Amino acid sequence: MEKTTLNVQGMSCGHCKAAIESAVKEVGASDVTVNLEAGTVDVTYDTAKVDLQKVKDAIEDAGYDVA
């Protein structure tokens, strides 16, 4: 398992948190932790099953910018 922290811009509320968690879990991540104040998303995933670029794309498709 790999754990990565992504800097995500545009998150401000509980809806943002829920949208990102849902989008990232849909691509196969096992754990997602959104920190609105820090503007970060911690993602735990199996590198054999999930590509980090797919995680980033899922967040961007949900309407947020991954820095």
TrEMBL record:
PROSITE patterns: HMA_1 (PS01047), HMA_2 (PS50846). Residues 2-67 form the HMA domain. It is found in: Cytoplasm. It comes from Tumebacillus lacus. Pfam families: HMA (PF00403). Transmembrane segments: none annotated. This is Copper chaperone CopZ. CDD domains: HMA. The keyword Ribonucleoprotein does not apply. Its main location: cytoplasm. It comes from the Bacteria. Keywords: Chaperone, Copper, Cytoplasm, Metal-binding.
